[in-house]
Amino acid sequence: MDQILEHTINQLRAELAAERVAHEETKLRLTTENHQLKTANQSLSKHCSKAFSELKKVGNQVKIMTENAKMVIFKSKSLKIKKLEEQTKRIERLERIMKRNGIRIPDDVDVEEDSEDIAHQEHLTEIDMVEAEIECLFDKLVTNYSENCRKKFSSEKSR
């Protein structure tokens, strides 16, 4: 009976030793996996940080480009407005010259219709529409003025 007991004790010791070895192996494997996961997490954090930094840079570049585009549009509109003002002054000057010389603008001059035709053909913006109206009016005034001057000149020449 002592032998059976001793054999059972030895068998239990062997099983306990085997379980300790298995436990140590599992502990070592889990420690290694934990270390690998920490390393992977650090690497992922670095990549995410870099990606976020790059994304931030791109966002700032987009912001700058948007502001630049707004400035270009604003400057373009400002230039168009300035051009319209200059054309308006030229038209007003031409009207004064025509009035001074006794030349009247015919009532049948339809600038709006011509400028609308141009606007429809070219799909213009509101500023372009006004510009087209002013250009048509200026062209008609110049044409009318030059015709009246020719008539006046030829009537004076024939005298």
Strand content: under 5%
The H-and-E topology, N to C, reads as HHH
Total beta strands: 0
Q: Tell me roughly what share of residues is in helical segments.
A: over 70%
Continuous helix count: 3
Low-pLDDT regions: none
Radius of gyration: 46 Å
Structural class, by secondary structure, is: mainly alpha
- What is the mean pLDDT? 78
How many domains?
1
Report on the structure:
With 159 residues, the protein is an all-alpha fold. The chain has one domain (2-158). The chain contains 3 helices and no strands.
Give a short overview.
This protein has 159 residues and is mostly helical.
What characteristics describe this protein?
single chain; mainly alpha; 91% helix
Describe how the helices and strands are arranged.
Elements: H1 2-100, H2 111-122, H3 126-158
Helix pairs in contact: 1-3, 2-3
